[in-house]
Fold these 2 entries.
Entry 1:
Amino acid sequence: MNNCFIVEGKKSITEFLESDYDLIKLFSVDRSFFSKIENQVNIDNSLLKRISFLINPDDHVAIFKLNDVKPIDNNNLIVALESISDPGNLGTIIRNCEWFGVKDVICSKDSVDCFNPKVIQSAMGSVSRINITYLDLCSYLKSSKTIKIGTSLNGKSIYKHHKSFDNGILVFGNEANGISSDLFNLMDYNFSIPRFHNNKFPESLNLASSLGIILSEIRRKSI
Amino acid sequence: MNNCFIVEGKKSITEFLESDYDLIKLFSVDRSFFSKIENQVNIDNSLLKRISFLINPDDHVAIFKLNDVKPIDNNNLIVALESISDPGNLGTIIRNCEWFGVKDVICSKDSVDCFNPKVIQSAMGSVSRINITYLDLCSYLKSSKTIKIGTSLNGKSIYKHHKSFDNGILVFGNEANGISSDLFNLMDYNFSIPRFHNNKFPESLNLASSLGIILSEIRRKSI
């Protein structure tokens, strides 16, 4: 089946049902939890285990229809991700973005699919509310007139920048390689989170945690 | 084999070899990368796939000996974790702790094992340098005279606290349930990271990201 994706877990399914995504079918071992949902099919536990991506499936597997792409709102802070490969990282990033009021996440076309079941699972429902757009990131950044905020291991300390950013594009690179030089040359700022000791380890922070810390730093300056 | 643990990946193995953990045996498809390590056994790819925990094994699997427990240094900031269940989360937390200069991580006895291969993998070598102690967390906190800093969804905004903590025990609870009431009653502070919008979603931030943000906030105040 094309143009659809799977959501598992009562909480995530509930949040997608409350969003503007349309349910195609809900497969349930026990219909009582979603008793008001008509578009529901009873299945047994052995079928649930076959169609679920989880080791311990949670009684329900829902199939939703993909929505059409929505326009990006350039008046708010946008997060752009280059070549993100780990689905757990992407899900956590989308959840962190929602917490800090980011409404648009842009991904380069070679990033992991945001409708991958592991992304949906680690985003805890946030995929249903964040506008996620896959595009040619280099062309987009070249054509955009918004401020571009890069992040790397060798930038200016984020703690020493005292302005907030009400809009702008905050760019994070691939987990292992960071932002590519092509994109890096387009940045107006280059920020780092400094280590609080003099050793060389760990080499880097986890990507989703870094993004959470940078978003927290940007938002706290607006308080 | 008891009292030992597995490390995979060239980077992590290199960092454990540089630490005070003793190598028991290094299994290698290609001996050239660790050519100076004598305690090495050649294996072929099919055996590597059988002994590795990774989907794409990285040529080497090392077995190290567990060290004796070391004393906790109460003069520095300590991170304490209650009932952490996700190994990826624990690994990322240990890595974040090292970045922000935390040397001791304390885990309640029902937390996931820090020598679980998934913890070692997501900690990226930090397990080799951080002192991790499993103990009865409630008894420990009751007997400790150090400041206890709790975190929850309903605490005081961390952005409104303007002092750093050079020492103290920063406590985080289980991914789904937070800090138990028994421990919570022992806290001197209760901090939250506020959402930057008025919706109720997402219900929470990812645990490792929250810990990174709180550590960043504590440390930035000491600059």
Entry 2:
Amino acid sequence: MKNTIGTALTLTLFGESHGPAIGAVLDGLAPGIPVNEDDIAHALDMRRPSGKISTKRREPDEFSILSGVFNGRTTGTPLCIVIKNENAQSRDYDYGPARPGHADYAAYMKYHGYEDYRGGGHFSGRVTAGIVAASAIVRTALKARGILVGTHISQLCSVRDRGFIDYKEDIELLYNKPFPTLMDEAEAQMRSAAERCAELGDSVGGVLQTAAIGMPAGVGEPFFGTVEGELSRAIFAVPGVKGVTFGLGTGFAGVFGSEGNDELRYEDGKVEFTKNNNGGVNGGITNGAPVIFNTVVKPTPSIYKPQNTVDFIKKENIVHTVRGRHDPMIIHRARAVVDALTVITLADLLTVRYGDDYLCPEGK
Amino acid sequence: MKNTIGTALTLTLFGESHGPAIGAVLDGLAPGIPVNEDDIAHALDMRRPSGKISTKRREPDEFSILSGVFNGRTTGTPLCIVIKNENAQSRDYDYGPARPGHADYAAYMKYHGYEDYRGGGHFSGRVTAGIVAASAIVRTALKARGILVGTHISQLCSVRDRGFIDYKEDIELLYNKPFPTLMDEAEAQMRSAAERCAELGDSVGGVLQTAAIGMPAGVGEPFFGTVEGELSRAIFAVPGVKGVTFGLGTGFAGVFGSEGNDELRYEDGKVEFTKNNNGGVNGGITNGAPVIFNTVVKPTPSIYKPQNTVDFIKKENIVHTVRGRHDPMIIHRARAVVDALTVITLADLLTVRYGDDYLCPEGK
Amino acid sequence: MKNTIGTALTLTLFGESHGPAIGAVLDGLAPGIPVNEDDIAHALDMRRPSGKISTKRREPDEFSILSGVFNGRTTGTPLCIVIKNENAQSRDYDYGPARPGHADYAAYMKYHGYEDYRGGGHFSGRVTAGIVAASAIVRTALKARGILVGTHISQLCSVRDRGFIDYKEDIELLYNKPFPTLMDEAEAQMRSAAERCAELGDSVGGVLQTAAIGMPAGVGEPFFGTVEGELSRAIFAVPGVKGVTFGLGTGFAGVFGSEGNDELRYEDGKVEFTKNNNGGVNGGITNGAPVIFNTVVKPTPSIYKPQNTVDFIKKENIVHTVRGRHDPMIIHRARAVVDALTVITLADLLTVRYGDDYLCPEGK
Amino acid sequence: MKNTIGTALTLTLFGESHGPAIGAVLDGLAPGIPVNEDDIAHALDMRRPSGKISTKRREPDEFSILSGVFNGRTTGTPLCIVIKNENAQSRDYDYGPARPGHADYAAYMKYHGYEDYRGGGHFSGRVTAGIVAASAIVRTALKARGILVGTHISQLCSVRDRGFIDYKEDIELLYNKPFPTLMDEAEAQMRSAAERCAELGDSVGGVLQTAAIGMPAGVGEPFFGTVEGELSRAIFAVPGVKGVTFGLGTGFAGVFGSEGNDELRYEDGKVEFTKNNNGGVNGGITNGAPVIFNTVVKPTPSIYKPQNTVDFIKKENIVHTVRGRHDPMIIHRARAVVDALTVITLADLLTVRYGDDYLCPEGK
């Protein structure tokens, strides 16, 4: 599958940055889930650029639901949500220069020059708005089952945020933060780092940490349907993502087994883990602890500095300066998309495990 | 899909550690590829335990090809390869205690106690022998197209190996090394670290780095068919893997866009990259540079130390010491599986891109 | 997959009869295919109701392409086409009575009453307009490869049309016929049969025969990727279809092997078949002869006569007369959808076989 | 997918007629299902040739279960079943002559001459033994849920059997009949027709009718996951099948809507249908009535008469007589495979609908 993901709950994306609209089709979602337009608008707000650290292109992100909702609830048939492109400035883009770190050259080798190159075309982060909008509905359904998902910037350059402590409280805190950190100081320092970087015409990357609580134990599969594999495949769809690690992540390389292992104990008749280095997954299957993973986001490739590259149409070496509007950091916006794909992927895994009606109000 | 992966070229796994046999079915492989049993034996040798740093269970790994080969070449129909289990000591295992870091409890919650728990059952690394055997045939086909894949241990505890320099030479070097490092000193230090750890009854983790050269530009898809997503989903099938990052990986969090971007230039009419931080992939699509990624492998969860845990049958807290044979490190053996899954995944991506006959001698 | 079909070329449907719009997303289509809006309009015209034998609901079928087309050609990224619903009369429908032969009761058991029941909702033939629109673009691409597809009504009640004689000429003839028969007399008799039936408030069914010429030999797979299996799965998506048979179809039950077998011979160095009882497929794989199959379409279940049924909301037996507008025959309209799905399915099979660029102008 | 079918419950086939073994991997089957070797042997017996109307090749069909069963029950992980080939007479086959009605030429165009052509290779009906063996286990699980499946020969040449009357009783009757008819006279006449045909060196085809009772309403999907589409795709895997029709099938072409529609009524608070022309499916979804479909099986293409054909290696027209052992009729053996694929496909649809544990004893 190319622009479709999922087994029981599938998401299909379409659209280009400067085409008439972008959108998504969500299929296999249980019937009866309340659809709240404010929730969708809120999710889109979290992905929208704002302030000095974001592109000056501002999209109102007006969405229309074309199908799949009736009397304010999901029908169980495909839900198509469309978001118009309105603030596109196509004159800012030319074709031939391969912007370093971008997909221009790879896309040319794949699409033979027929690709819509304006504003990154189908490779634009703009396309992820459809993911985010669709996820808001799924999030409602997960919440009704006690499953909550939240993501924060755990690292930006050398600035680090604290980890999750009280998962529920922390996730609720993050829900309304367009610049999602758990500590206020971290936000201040990250903003200041990004702004200094923007002044240099450069960009910064970082790491997101995502937590999902409430997932029942026993979801996922060994080998080719692992929770890790399903999530990572989804998360690598986010433009700029270059790594996904679970729990302790790269930290596992430096610890002994006796430290890496999470011990178990019964508390009030329920299995608990003393720590969660494994990120809530063993053998590809949820163990009941929070699902925790980290997403590495590279610095925005669009920078204001001249770079050496090729013009693949003129077949010559050039020095090129990226024109147009671009973000010195995208990780806070990528957060919304990582969060959204987590919501959708977990809902898919749950639907595979417990059937089509698991997220339906009647399914309980 | 649970134990099947791939779109055009699919791999299906079966088997448990202490059942009669494990195996794999490879389907969609082009006809006409020479099948050399020595290559398969060699690949299996690289996965087999050896020396002080490995389990004392030694399997001869005798394989049989049940289908899909005729007159020494692939037929294009499913190739089933079966490896008997012969050295299983089932008395070493009991049921109920959840070994920390293992899938025991998660599996119980999924399979309700019907799972074959002996030696880890279907969760055993033993099952990966089928992947490794199958990959040897696919490797031959890729090689005929100029595509080579190799993996080394880039980090074990605090010991680091150098990165790839001359890709072709380095990959050829690694092919015959059961303890795969690029520097001899790294091997010596890593072995010594692992042996010290073994003496403590503990285990170590690390990081693998994989390189694939010769991949044409323009393979893969944006969003849900990215090279990163397809590879990571496959690699997370390897027991113990907790992270997959591409190119500079987590290093991206600490650099500016101007450093992270890989500049392009024409050399002799061919597009080259000045460096390869993006690991050969932009926008999910190969750019013609080597595909590079890193796999985080956690320390073997089986250790000789007593650990606190639960007995989920007796529903009580216990102190448990894992019995049986186990490896203080598995990363050198995981290497064979990561390598194998890379070979198979890239062959799948190429078959999707260029059609069923791409790897067939007649397809050129 | 629920509303998505295909392996390399995928089609995703969305929409309900009385929602804001219906549509389709076509993904995996090669870049560079010319997109002609007149062709799309023409395909939609063939599906649109007309004359005495069709519903009085008349849709203008104005479509918009939201993505995937740039400079008049496909880009290779998802193409979304949307068709607004404008002439919906929702007051004609009530909820509870299960119309015999319709999906009302089955849908209620699946969607628990959350389904959009107006005008059949997502079960409406209206949703197939998206298939038809999308297929027009794919048809252009197949034609450039010499592959043509056409469908006629081979039987309506007791009236029969002749079979294909000169395939190319016959297919071209059918292209412009909203009432697609190969003989003019057949059309006249079928129309007259349908009109008589309409006067009785009843409806008629029939059989469509489809031919695809130009398919190369060697496409498809044995067992679970057969040309027959892939086509039939697609064709059963058309509301009202209850059977799909290939070549001689049910006639095979009455002949001997010596009659059923199609003999081969070389003519001008090319393999030809003396007859085509097998419908161009052996062992699931094309043999180079025209692909021929027959689709059984049941009579429209909406009739003007009172019928015994249940009200599943009130839980009581009732006598019910279907209100609203409906067609005494739909087979001529189903033709457009069967034709469209054939075009899309064959393009998918070809893309799987020969790769992503097979239908791209550069791919030749 | 090529040799793998299913969404939640998948079946993967491998093997060739004259290779070491054929087999199947069943994945996604619920844990805890009792595995009875006698049931498997019985299912294989129903597929095995016997008497004058079958090939003289007699296989003992000794099977081994390599994985997925522990303590006599399914584990929930992949179940691999292997059946050795023992009675192969490879000298009977030569390569080049395209047997009319067989896949020889189509396979050559796909596999370029690398295919294992001995005894039909991977295209042999022999490969279906794996399907049949695997289905016996799934059948046990369906039965525990009250779902029964049976198939009879409804037509052979001009001889017809009666339809199902008391479904349960009829299905139980068929279970033990190697020549499956509901009326004894039908069997006698069909046998006699087949034997006369065998004397002429020719072969006969026919129609199978399959019934599945106990399927809950609300299973399946509109459009691309219809019960009809999923079943037909599976059934077309059976060598020789050329058509699949539901309920009244081709009879729909000759009736009015008022006759074709199945009226509903409440009986004892449960929805019943007065007749079952729609074969238990409306809008692609089960309606609670028995699922009924018909499978057209062409006459065995292997006949003892000389036929005109080509030698595609020598590139010349020839007259060819098929050597070796072959069946004058295969429809009674195809019955076992159609039955088996129905069992597996329905179990897959149920697992998708109700989740992984639906067929597990604990799932109830």
